[in-house]
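=== Structure Prediction Worksheet ===
Name of assembly: unnamed complex
Input type: mixed (protein and possibly other molecules)
Chain count: two
Listed entries:
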Amino acid sequence: MAKTILFQHNTLASLMAGIYEGTMSVEELLKHGNFGVGTVDSVDGELIVLDGKVYQATGTNDEFKVKEVPSHVLVPYAAVVHHTTTKSWKEDNPIDSENLKKTIEEKLDSHNLFYSVKIKGTFSKMHVRMIPKSKTGERFAEVAKNQPEFTQENISGTLIGIWTPELFHGVSVAGFHLHFLADDLHFGGHVMDFVMQDGNIEIGRIDQLEQNFPVDNKTFLEKSFDVLALRSDIEASE
Amino acid sequence: MAKTILFQHNTLASLMAGIYEGTMSVEELLKHGNFGVGTVDSVDGELIVLDGKVYQATGTNDEFKVKEVPSHVLVPYAAVVHHTTTKSWKEDNPIDSENLKKTIEEKLDSHNLFYSVKIKGTFSKMHVRMIPKSKTGERFAEVAKNQPEFTQENISGTLIGIWTPELFHGVSVAGFHLHFLADDLHFGGHVMDFVMQDGNIEIGRIDQLEQNFPVDNKTFLEKSFDVLALRSDIEASE
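=== Predicted Assembly ===
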C-alpha cells in the first residue's frame, strides 16, 4: 500500500521567528498534497488547501475575504498531504471544539504519529482569526496580538487539520492545527473555537513526514533560533 | 539538481524510551542512503553505514568486534543519506574532537539544516562505546550507564556523522552524532572523543528530512512519551 506522506515546507518555528518570505510556489506545494494548512507570503492571511484547491482567508478590522490563490504565489510555510481516510464516523449531537478534539484524540490509534483531520459539518458558531500581512522580522507572537477575529453563526463548511505528536512541537504545532472553509467559499481562517451541530469526521493516519527546508532563503539560513522561546510562542499564538 | 534527503527510521526519542525492536530491514534501509548511523534489533551494538555497506560494532567488557550485517537484519533506529559533499577541507595538524567539532560548526553555512559529516583520518586516540544488547522496555539512559567503552591508539579510519539542528533535538540528537569505523574493519562504535592527527573533512548539506515511523509496531504506537525527559536522556546518553 502506498505510504501517506505529510509534506511540510519550512517549520512553524521559522514562522514564529518572523521568517515570512514566500519560498515555495503553490504550484510546487500542490504536487505534495491536496489538503492542508499554511500561510501566504508576508503572512498575508491563512492558507487553506482543500480538494486540491488553494484558498487564502484574510481579514481587516471589519471585513473578511476568501479568494483562490494563483499557482505562482509563494508560501513561507505550509503542511499538505493527500488526505486518505483511515477512520471515520458521524457526530449527530451538538459538540464544542474542546470536546470534539478530546473525542478525536481518544480515537487516534497512536499519539506518536501525525494525522490529517477532515470534518464536514454544520456549525452554530465558528470563531476564526486571520494573521495580518506583516514584514519579515516581526515576531509572530507580537503580530498575533493584533489579529482580526471573526465569528459566524449557523454556517456549513469543512475543518482542515493536521494533528502533530508532542515530539514535533516546534517543527509543527503539537496537537490540532485547524483551518476552516465555508461551503459558500466566503468565510474561513485559522480556527479558535466552534460549536458543531453535526458533522462527519475523517481521520487519515500518516506514515511519514517529509520535512522540507527553504535552503535558498538567506533569512532562514542565517537566523539564530531560540528553540524554547519559539515553542512557547507557538503555544501562545496557535 | 537532485535533493539530498536524510532518511530517518523512527526517532531517537523512541530509542531513549526503550523501543528496541527492529522494524526495518537493512535491505530496505539501504534504498534510502549509503552512509549513516543507527543501531540493531535489541540495541545490539552500533550500526555503521559506509559506502553502501552496513556494519555492526559490538563490545563486551573486554572484547570488541565489527561484522557486516546481513540484509535481512532489522533495525529499530537509523538515519541514512546518500552523502553528497558540498564543502570539504583538510586538517593537517593534530586537533581534538571538541575543537574539530567547533571548527566544523563554524564552517556550516546554516545551523538550521541537517548535514552529513564524513571524516577520513588518522587518530592518535579514538574512544568509542557500544550499546549492549538489551530488552525493549529498559530505558536507554539506564542501559547506557553500563556500556563497554574502548580506546584505540594510532588508528586510521572514518568518522560517519549526522549534524542535527537544535529544533530537531529529540527527533534526532542536536549537534553531532558520530560513529567510527577503522580502515581494517576491526574496530568501531559510537564516538565519545578522539584526537585526530590529520584528516579530510567532507560536509554534505541536506535539503530535506524524510522521517519514517514504525507504523506497525505496537510498542511504538502505544508508548506514552515524556518528551522533556527523553530530550534530557539524549543529552546524558549521547
